[in-house]
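Crash report, auto-generated. Payload:
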Amino acid sequence: MGQTLRVTVNGEARSDEVEPRLLLVHYLRETCGLTGTHVGCDTSQCGACTVLLDGAAVKSCNMLALQADGAEITTIEGLAPEGGLHPLQTAFWENHGLQCGYCTPGFIMAAAALLAENHDPSDEEIGRGLEGNLCRCTGYVNIRKAVKAAALAMREGAAAPIGG
Amino acid sequence: MAVTQLIGARVQRREDPRLITGHGRFIEDHTLPGLTHLAVVRSPHPHALILGIDTAAARALPGVLAVLTAADFHKVLSGSMPVTPAFAPEKKYVPERFPIAEREVCFQGEPVAVVVANDRYLAADAADLVHVTYEPLPAVVDPEGAMNPGSPLVHTDGPDNIGWDMTYAGGDIDAAFSRAEVVVKERIIQQRLAPTAMETRGVMASYSPYSEDLSLWLSSQNPHFIRLFVSGAMGIPESRVRVVSPDVGGGFGSKISPYPEDYLVPAASKLLGRPVRWIETRTESVMTTIHGRGQVFTAEAAALRDGTLLGLRLTQVLDLGAYHGTFGAFQACACLMAGGVYRWEAISARTVGVLTNKVPTDPYRGAGRPEGTHLCERMVDRMADELGMDPAELRRKNFAREFPFVNNFGLTYDSGNYDGTLDRALELSDYQGWRQRQAAARAEGKLVGIGLSTWVEICGFGPSAATAGATGGIALVESAQIRFLPSGSVAAYVGTHAHGQGHDTTFSQLVAETLGVPLEAVDLRHGDTAEGPAFGYGTYGSRSLSVGGMALYTASQEILAKARKLAAHLLEASPDDLEFTAGAFTVRGNPQAKKTIQEVALASYGGNLPAGMEQGLEAVSHFDPPNFVWPFGAHVCVVEVDRETGAVEILSYTGVDDCGNVINPMIVEGQVQGGIAQSIAQALFEEVVYDGESGQLVTGTMLDYLVPTMNELPTPKLDRTVTPSPTNALGVKGIGEAGTIAASAAVINAVCEALRPLGIHHVDMPASPDRLWRLMQEAGR
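Recovered output after restart:
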């Protein structure tokens, strides 16, 4: 029946018996209790379920949990240290980059993967980086603004002297 | 009301910390001990007789707890799902609707059986093992065809397929047309749309046989109405049913009316004695959550040669689907709003609701007002084209300018300044500059068009005199309760329900400002029928601020009135000698004699009260608005159509709207941006497609139903004018639907203007590359 899955989720090493057909998103939500990762479409268009798998953005509703064996997974709950906010989270808040908030974790995780590769994305590059995520509330205007603001904050943060 | 410290401020949202960190609480994030999982067996046919249901294989699967069919549900559910009069009170045929089919299925996706299992994967497996034998019947797909006397029937026991057929007459239409110097005619299609909230629907229910009460968690815009309907169908006293609608991942109208699962899940919980949860898949959502629009209009407009509009005659054929949506007839308000912002001598509007073998239609963001606006603005542009007038000038010539303005159907627009929004929109969009660039582009053979939409909406539902009849008894007023706790913190409860609109923030700003307490002292609560006043009326129709906000405001005033008496008693002064500013009562002329409202709140729980005053400082208020409210605006869209591919590129989009006074401009802008995006989506991309022969849904996933991404949408230039509403003390209107009402007409008017050099006068939605390419090919022949 079950097979052993060994993964690191938000820094915590785990070992769980899972059914081979269990989707990664259900493993995260139900086995790990991390309900910040949402399911929006079941067919990989909406990106609400986006998490980081070894640093790359993946859609966790289109992946079996066992395919993540040995990987390091980051979900929205683990993006920033406990009690703190990642610059993307701050930027979404400050720029009204969310309304109902259902798609937001997926957008933030996809944007985190984008900004890890590109520290100063243009509008077009943001569009390409987030083309796999759908939002029904915002019209995306403030999401784009938030990603740019976060990129700026992260560049300025990286440039600041340590401890400064 | 003036812009003060909190009212009018861009306060960051209080909702966001939980939502940006993954700690929101949406429906699927809720669980209970012993939770079971329900899957629905649905009809694959749009129309068929059910000959038999074999559940044996499903029942035999280990972990399956029950397979239930209509016969089981009749033990715990009774009656027919509700249908309101709304704007088509004279119904001809209303088919009965039990939440699960028994003898006949009438749309693809209609529930036939449910499976309850220990695990969601098992429930899905078992649902596949339920074997239903059907005898397929002809499917009625086209609403216009369904009106023919010889049409197959949507319900085999129905008299015909006509749900309603009534005409709104506003003035002497024949007299208006008899003076016409120019008449234009058009057939305008409003395609079916899937609202597509990012969170699908979901229901979790727990019935306790010991206390005979029911707790129901669902993703709803309207928890109190759901409690009313479900308690009635299950025969449980309303007071013993608690409905909780927690964080809701978007609604757009699709979570107003009750759905079959809202009954079936609690009924299954009662039958099994276990908590039960059902979460809709996206394919279930496109197939079985209500659709919006789905209307065909034929219209003719009459005018004098100088551009004076005379008459508008129209017919709305509304595709109801297989049953009336609970509020489906609301969409007939397209007829009442078809005159838009203009003075007409007469309007005659016939609305026909027609049944088809498809999922029911019901209000979707704007609901009748986008359709009415699109129709009116298309006809005005057709007329401008025919007259050779600039579309902005034709609009200006006919604007209503004196307010209150009574339209042809007796509706009273409370305030407006249509020239103001149009002037600002033309300026902000550089309309004259675009006219020059358009001429240059046309000279190069490019297809560039400029489209306008000057819109008005009826919202803020609504006055009891108008709405109690429309719902069949319950006036759509709003309730609020405000409580000062002894420590001075404030709990405010409101009967509206936010699902992205930021009410926690806006309403807290309003309450904090009115009571003079810090924002942090206010706790705003909604969405749980166990809290606050007895009944709440939900969020839809851009009503939350102008009705719900006003209920909070009037409750605040009641609190202040009592607090004033108590403060006067404590300060040994007359209540009339007190001033209330910045959260404190002071004796006029003696600013040292002072009691803050929070000191008064603490005192209200003590023993030193004026004679006859009871302890506590709280108030419940219901606000019954004297009128609807009437936001308006002007949008300008510039497009280029690619001759080779038919693709539309939006070169510029501008919106100038007026929703009266504004509490939080950041949230207002967000609502407009999102509303415009949804309307551009209708204009260019989205359409629910059914196969015309078989009635099978073709666009069953997000692969086929094209919700636009960031890359398809422009960044609109936005501005506002402020014309306060005289309807309420706050001077506020509504903004949740404005962008969606405005934008489709601006986009399509621009596309039509772009294609005019090719002899094309009208384009239906979505103006997809495919559709435009074909039109251009035909025009070129």
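Post-recovery validation: The longest strand of chain A covers residues 3-9.
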